[in-house]
Amino acid sequence: MVKVVGSPLPNIPWEERPAGCSDVVWRYSKNPIIPRDLILSSNSIFNSAVVPFKGAFAGVFRCDDKRRHMNIHRGFSPDGFHWQIDNEPIEWLCDDPEAAFTYYRYDPRVCWIEDRYYVMWCNGYHGPTIGVGYTFDFEKFYFLENALLPYNRNGVPFPRKINGKYVMLNRPSDNGHTPFGDIYLSQSPDMIHWGEHRFVMGTAGGWQSTKVGAGPVPIETDEGWLLFYHGVLTSCNGFVYSFSAALLDLEKPWKVIRRAAPYLLSPQTLYECVGDVPNVAFPCAALVDAPTGRVAIYYGGADTVTALAFCRVDEVLDFLKANSL
Ligand code: BMA
Asked: Which of 96, 144, 214, 248 makes a 20 to 30 Å CA pair with 200?
């Protein structure tokens, strides 16, 4: 069996695959887990990131408020299903007012690396780019820098340094509802200065024909980095956001070992098809229990609510072997 590198998470939120279902990724039966109006100020809560924290769970949530302003809020959960989210956005500590300047924040990812939780998000600094910050305790949050020049989205860190460098996936874009997009990788000695950019993968057919973008923090296995990523198809009715998986080389993670031709999950339920932006399933986080390979994927539904789906690492790798592009 494939070996997953990581910690045990015996309390991972989990529900077995329903009887009669043969999907590799299956939805939680009580989705969505976070309704759009969980907090007083919110219009919608979606595309959010969670991590294990002190025997329970913590997260950074995209909450668009009732002015339709986009920002990220802190949350805690005893079980990964039920969340308490702050009504007010996170305040970022930063000594440099120019660096700290922002119009909006959205689509966070959170990742424990070495000694702290790093947060990356799409940061409005004269156009979308990748904001990087960190917290040790989910009490104080520090803003570091904008990692890249605008325009860029979907900054996703790897959970450890590779060949002595921090690594992130990202997606150069434009200032609007970008009609193109390939996944690139950037490297850094210090999380501030990023370079040595490498092309990872571009669009392909069908569900991933318009653009692709990294989803949750990649999962390390002895066969490679397991990456869940979203792909977009342009239909007569607009963009359709689905997601699937790829396997990246452990030492040279810009090298794609395998990549799925079919999607693993596409918008088909009411909460994925109906909302502020219809037909969107957009994953930003995955919890993993390394010994069993169980995975809980958190994804946004229709840019409105947050949902959960489950899978097993070995089954996703088997799916990739059988269904690679
Ligand atoms: C992308 C991002 C995501 C969003 C998606 C669908 O460009 O803005 O936050 O979920 O579009 O609207």
From this structure: 144
Cα separation, 94 vs 148, in Å, equals 18
| Ligand 1 mutation pick, 171, 282, 298, max ligand atoms within 8 A of CB | 282
Beta bridge partners of 4: 221
CA atoms within 13 A on the CB side of 244: 23
Asked whether 280 lines ligand 1 (CB < 6 A), one says yes
Tokens of 41: 């100020």
pTM exceeding the 0.90 threshold for the entire prediction? yes
What local confidence, expressed as pLDDT, does residue 207 receive?
A: 98
Regions of the chain short of the pLDDT cut 70: none
Pocket mutation for ligand 1, best pick of 230, 280, 284, 299 (most atoms within 8 Å of C-beta)? 280
Predicted pLDDT at 1: 83
Specify which residues 311 forms β-bridges with.
295
